[in-house]
Design brief:
The complex is a heterodimer of chains A (205) and B (294). Chain A is mostly helical and 205 residues long. Chain A has helices spanning 2-5, 24-55, 68-80, 82-99, 111-128, 134-160, 165-200. Chain B has a domain at 113-291: Beta Barrel (Thrombin, subunit H). Classes of the chains: A mainly alpha (205), B alpha+beta (294).
């Protein structure tokens, strides 16, 4: 345990922390820190997704921007674990729902449920089935984005009655899917770097 | 199945929370506060969106600038082409306008002399060696193919120009009244004095000709107009030539001479009319003598 080798005064000014094992306080601090960081990151990514990337014409794909919030949820699940992925997914769903120009199902928030499941599943599957590297994450981002698109399609059908699947595929799902996969390294690599920093930080391990 | 639920208890809790959230939203929706959570969420996210919107505007404008360069270049090229064609059209229109104005001026001459048959011609080149810039020989763009013959008189809207001295298939040469070898039967309608208008080297530099062989008692004076007399076989009667600038007496021949400034500007002749046919009249007799024109 790194904490046992640490000697000094931490930010709490509590020396007893360094001598013991995992404490409840330390775990809570880590969770809160992660949660706040995740929330701020989600808001930032949401802002980038809906404004910056939506304004720049990417690869001549009209009105399409990558699902950065979803990527962050998946990356969190893959890197930090299923629980963190699930919680982050829940918040990511809320942010994604709030960012939607029109509420997907008349205001009922179902995206948190979907994102939570995807975040949790990414944590479980990434560790059990896929190798913990970037190509594996690309595969997972593609699958996750596809599921997200499919769910949105179902919600839209529920809302507006009928939607031509080919039109939705070519104009809605496919551009977002391609962009999401292309942008996935930009999310995964920083999240992994943050995780490594967290691992090295003696105060939060 | 039970094993799955036990194993993923955390997921079940999470799903329950998410479902509760959805149910709450549904209840809010029924109560008429459907957009409440969205508004709260948007309030939190708005500052982030605002910042990135500004950044996006900047980047978008920057990208747009480079996109616009190509688009604007294409537009400039298209406009330049259009401008070129419009310039050509304008130039054509200007030429047509000039021609129309020119023809209109000749129309008044034609109305005055209904017997005149005229052929419009353009000056291709003009020469006036040793004449101080005044034309003594003109090359016109009409020749035998257009019915032009040697000896036909050439006029402009302002007055007499000269006569055709040489004819090619598509061009002809005109000797102007300033040329020293030219002679035109002329008279002054004010005094009825007749003489012969000849080009003179002495006055060529001023663009003037001399009306010679006027009788000693001629009453011609400065400012009188001079026109063709119709005597001879070339020029019809009554074509204006110019104005008398000076009158003198030749002590050797005991005749008067008048220096005439032509009405036509021989420094810049562009278009003229060749009289291809006309009815010959003589002074004081307006019954047609014969048909003239070469």
């Amino acid at each position: 345990m790194k904490i046992q080798r640490f000697r000094g005064v931490d930010s709490y000014g509590d020396r007893t922390l360094h001598t013991g094992g995992y404490s409840e306080k330390r775990q809570t601090y880590r969770a809160v820190k992660l949660l706040v960081l995740a929330l701020i990151t989600l808001c930032l990514l949401g802002g980038i997704q809906t404004t910056l990337l939506a304004k720049i014409p990417l690869f001549v794909l009209p009105s399409a921007s990558p699902a950065l919030c979803l990527l962050f949820v998946l990356a969190t699940g893959c890197v930090f674990g299923e629980k963190e992925g699930g919680i982050c997914g829940c918040f990511g769903g809320i942010v994604a729902e709030c960012l939607s120009m029109d509420a997907l199902l008349g205001g009922i928030m179902l995206l948190p449920l979907v994102y939570a499941v995807l975040g949790y599943a990414s944590g479980v599957l990434f560790q059990k089935i896929l190798a913990g590297n970037l190509p594996s994450f690309l595969v997972f981002a593609a699958v996750g984005s596809f599921f997200d698109g499919g769910f949105r399609y179902i919600l839209m059908i529920l809302r507006i009655g009928a939607l031509p699947p080919f039109s939705f595929l070519t104009h809605g799902l496919l551009p977002v899917w391609i962009l999401t996969v292309l942008f996935s390294p930009l999310i995964y690599l920083p999240v992994r770097a943050v995780k490594r920093k967290f691992d090295k930080d003696p105060l939060v391990t | 199945m039970r094993r799955f639920f036990v194993r993923h208890k955390f997921l079940m809790k999470l799903c329950a929370v998410a479902l509760l959230l959805a149910i709450f939203c549904g209840v809010f929706l029924i109560m008429g506060w459907g957009s409440l959570l969205h508004r709260v969420g948007n309030t939190v996210i708005y500052p982030f969106q605002w910042v990135f919107s500004k950044v996006g505007d900047g980047i978008g404008g920057f990208v747009m600038h480079f996109e616009d360069v190509d688009r604007l270049q294409e537009k400039i090229d298209a406009l330049e082409l259009e401008n070129e064609s419009l310039r050509a059209e304008l130039s054509d229109a200007e030429i047509l306008y000039d021609e129309q104005a020119w023809l209109y001026r000749y129309l008044s001459m034609k109305e005055e002399h209904i017997d005149y048959q005229m052929c419009a011609a353009r000056v291709i080149s003009a020469s006036g060696e040793g004449s101080g810039g005044f034309e003594t020989l003109l090359t016109l763009n009409k020749g035998s193919a257009h019915g032009i013959q040697k000896g036909m008189p050439v006029v402009s809207t302002s007055g007499l120009v000269g006569m055709v001295v040489e004819v090619g298939i598509n061009q002809c040469y005109v000797q102007t009244i300033l040329k020293p070898t030219s002679s035109v039967g002329a008279l002054s309608p004010e005094s009825s004095d007749k003489g012969l208008l000849e080009g003179d080297f002495a006055y060529l530099y001023q663009g003037q000709a001399v009306l010679k062989y006027l009788p000693e008692d001629a009453e011609i004076k400065e400012g009188d107009t001079v026109m063709t007399s119709g005597n001879g076989s070339v020029y019809p009667y009554g074509i204006p030539i110019g104005k008398v600038a000076e009158v003198s007496v030749n002590p050797h021949s005991r005749t008067k001479e008048a220096i005439v400034t032509p009405f036509h500007d021989f420094s810049d002749t562009k278009e003229v009319m060749i009289l291809t046919s006309y009815i010959r009249y003589t002074e004081g007799d307006h019954t047609p003598e014969s048909e003239g024109g070469a």
